Amino acid sequence: MKEQKNYFILVLVLGALSTISPFSVDMYLPAFPAISENLNTSISNVQLSLTSYLIGIAIGQLFYGPLLDKFGRKKPLYAGLWIYVVASVGCAFTSSVNSLIVMRFIQAVGGCVGMVAAQALVRDLFPVNKIAQALAMLTLVIAVSPMIAPTLGGYLTAHFHWHWMFILLAAICTAIILACKWQLPDGADPDPDLSLRLGRVTRKYLDVLKNKQFLTYILVGGIAGAAPFAYIAGSSDVFINIYGLTATQYGWLFAFLSVAMIGATQLNHVLLNHFSNRTIVITALSYQLVVGLVIITGVGTGVFNVWMLIAMMFIFLTGHGLSVPNAAAISLAPFEKNAGSASAMMGFMRMSFGGLISGLVSIFHNGTAMPMILLMAGCILLAGLVLIHYYHSTGELYTWRKKNSRLSPR
């Protein structure tokens, strides 16, 4: 009983660390129209503050990987989280969209340490055959964020002011720092012999990328995982400005659609008892592509109303809760050492694609839902093509078709 309680607390704290960045994104989405009006700028410029945040996450993770390996998990973790707190206060007092974009970048560079440290600690604290389940549990905790954050952000925007969201984020991060101090194990020991020279760090990342399984599945997970970022970047404009929802209604809608990912992560626990990580990834990508084509056709022909679009988006987003944790588990499986660097590289790829896609949503913004849904479907198609190429080049496509049974990550 005590062991179960400790496991629950550990997953909760690791999930809270992983949630810092998603919460920071989701909370201010309903405020996009209010921010653009208050700062006297366009929606597309406000969307760039999301892009800068995702770029900050991507770049920051590359630095934290080696730091977590050299100094242990705790010291870099605390340093990054305090940077996040200070930058959040800076966002609250910004008076222009340009300063908001810069402060969001700094906020992301600090807060992203939570994601890297959490994934590295999963590799430290759980056996290989339990990584996928642990990551699925983290995904479940993370998936609660879109239920709470945009709804809370909608109410704060409607009844107070969008600046208060960033004060609240600073307070939440401070509470997480205290929880880490009291409840989080130290994880892997520091490696004082590890060099932080740029050349050696670069070679370490290149060594990680030489693992073909790792490279393939971080590409698959990163590209497929970018599809929700297209939805995140474009959905407030689509549902508030095009379909006429209020900020509060949008917050509730975002919470409802997040149930798709939460349900999928729960389903993933059951599926892993019967199918391999690879089988689940292939199946999820396949049906997401079909659903994406249906959405494009429905919106493009004008057949879909807002409720039909919401229903199909719900089905589409379930794939995220299935493909991403399983792709991540396969990616990390080869690494007993350098888990921090591997986790950082995986996060860098994922957020780089997310930042690219969110930026493309802003660039192609045309007052319709098409840029958002085309980019969502395009991400799934590209991820599928990468996986097919890998399977053909290694011969695993034939093996998977022949056996179609549980295959442990190699």
From TrEMBL:
Places the protein is found: Cell membrane
Keyword list, A-Z: Cell membrane, Membrane, Transmembrane, Transmembrane helix, Transport
Entry annotated with the keyword S-adenosyl-L-methionine: no
Domain Major facilitator superfamily (MFS) profile: 10-395
Membrane association type: Multi-pass membrane protein
Bilayer-spanning residue ranges: 7-25, 45-64, 76-95, 101-122, 134-156, 162-180, 214-232, 252-272, 279-300, 306-335, 347-364, 370-391
UniProt cross-references to PROSITE patterns, sorted A to Z: MFS
Family, per entry: Belongs to the major facilitator superfamily. Bcr/CmlA family.
NCBIfam families per record: efflux_Bcr_CflA
Protein's name in the database: Multidrug effflux MFS transporter
Organism listed in the record: Cyclobacterium jeungdonense
